[in-house]
TrEMBL record, chains A, B:
Species of the source: Orbilia ellipsospora
Highest taxon above the source species: Eukaryota
The keyword Hydrolase belongs to this UniProt entry's keyword annotation: yes
Protein name: 4-nitrophenylphosphatase
Cofactor detail note: Divalent metal ions. Mg(2+) is the most effective.
Family annotation (NCBIfam families): HAD-SF-IIA (TIGR01460), PGP_euk (TIGR01452)
Lineage: Eukaryota, Fungi, Dikarya, Ascomycota, Pezizomycotina
Length: 307, 307
């Protein structure tokens, strides 16, 4: 009886060996590979081994590549320069960032009404994507227009404010939090986040992530933002729609179990591939497999796909 | 049987009438009155009616008065100037603020070791109280000593850091949060808060409170700070010890159910008195009474104690 109600079981994570036959069989299952970037392609400012060659090999076999990042501080245009710096050929259209995902959701799915605007706790990446989608915004990297200590005079409700959007904001201030809190006390004002990653990994250390900029607002209002980054299904829906993705022929490649691999599993992709060049360790991957939260396969590094 | 396991019941909150006899009977139960300040004595910049006369009447009847505030931005010395501005006679020793409570707990209860220091996300009030107790500190209102954007180079573990203390910090910055997060990743570093009030009431509006400055750290580390403000029992213990308080002859007076009145009830004081000049409404007070969380008695305003 118990087995009838158990969730469909997933096989334990399997380490791909270097055998050409096994690797080819794995690759041949998919038409599209979605890649997390930091921890998979590079680590901080260091390009990981044989990444350029591996992506080139996948392209030569006709695979579509999509680069999916929760980094909300850069627009797709700006993020493409990071690829260029590492010598990785990429087009802007192949990049799908949480800032872009948020902009598209606001303009095309939620359809912000005429005459309304968005208050931002975020950096320039979101502003560039909002400008491209024609979404009026204020806050963010722009001066507030008054001294921070006068915020009490400027943080009431505002009928022109339709939403508050939080991302990673390394210029976070009490004044911005006070203004956002003022707007969010109106339950009609939407509360969105590019992503709610608690931390922002840098080489050798962790810094506060976008979720840390939303946390005070959640404490004050009791409201949780709708997030558009991994592992949110809203991001998968946007990707599916933009790239005409056949999920049965797609694989998510990432280094973090709780964002990348969850994103692939919950998003209903046929495959998930973890690499050990980022956050999650082999031990964590095997443990996650015991609860059905592990990847299908894993590799020491992406370059091992070359065999 | 059920009645044997039920908690001791508390009578529903009772509104004190203006009858001299009833008011005298209430006052005569107590030797000490603990007062919340904002919402009880004044509201923002406005002194509430007959406050000076009421406090004078209590003093003339030999009552000891203690003013208990969660406001961590002012030292007792600085806070006494607010009383002077309103024309309320008070001595510094009658004021018990969360900044002072935190300083006393760190120096006398937790006994910070020689050569160690505290990183502050807080304002000058805590710094003054820490200086008075001889507690070494950095951060807070002091410059970090490097540009904020270089924080990644300055947020590692530091063996001299013994604790992180958060209070209300209207100069909160990403750099301070990143540094605190760096220290708190070491489980041996204490995590303290002056108080965890989510909001900071101002006339006509709410601003982010001290709890909002701690919330990102809780999200990132999974750690909850030990708080020394109302309704923390640590604050009641400090008050009991400093003033040789007989709880059976003490009454807490406040305007907020979830801080002031809870503080009195959980702290085991004989009496609790709510006033309707602040945050909690009569409806909320009566509803709280149904779950045993209401005050013993309430009044429209403190001045009604004059009869």
């Amino acid at each position: 009886m118990a087995s009838e109600t158990a969730p469909p079981s997933r096989a334990p994570p399997r380490k791909l060996t270097g055998k050409k036959q096994e690797i080819d069989a794995f690759i041949d299952q998919f038409d599209t590979f979605l890649f997390d970037c930091d921890g998979v392609l590079w680590r901080g400012s260091v390009l990981l081994p044989k990444v350029v060659e591996t992506l080139e090999m996948l392209r030569s076999r006709g695979k579509k590549l999509v680069f999916v990042t929760n980094n909300s501080t850069k627009s797709r245009e700006t993020y493409s320069k990071t690829f260029a710096k590492f010598g990785i050929p990429v087009t802007v259209d192949e990049i799908f960032g949480s800032a872009y995902s948020t902009a598209v959701a606001i303009s095309r799915v939620h359809k912000i009404p005429e005459g309304k605007r968005v208050f931002l706790i975020a950096e320039a990446g979101i502003e560039e994507e909002f400008d491209a989608e024609g979404i009026p915004h204020f806050g963010g990297s722009q001066p507030l227009g008054f001294p921070d200590e006068d915020v009490a005079e400027h943080c009431g409700p505002d009928p022109t404010v339709w939403a508050v959007v939080t991302g990673l904001d390394r210029k976070l201030s009490y004044a911005k939090l006070a203004m956002a809190f003022g707007y969010l006390q109106d339950p009609n004002v939407h509360f969105f986040a590019t992503n709610v990653d608690s931390t922002f990994p840098m080489p050798g250390r962790l810094l506060p992530g976008a979720g840390s900029c939303a946390a005070p607002l959640t404490l004050m209002t009791g409201r949780t933002p709708v997030a558009f980054g991994k592992p949110s299904l809203a991001m998968m829906d946007s990707i599916e729609s933009k790239y005409k993705l056949d999920k049965e022929r797609a694989c998510m490649v990432g280094d973090r179990l709780n964002t990348d691999i969850q994103f692939g599993i919950q998003g209903g992709l046929k495959g998930t591939l973890a690499v050990l060049t980022g956050v999650s360790t082999e031990k964590e991957i095997l443990e996650a497999g015991e609860t059905g939260d592990g990847p299908d396969v894993y590799l020491d590094c992406l370059g091992d796909l070359l065999g």
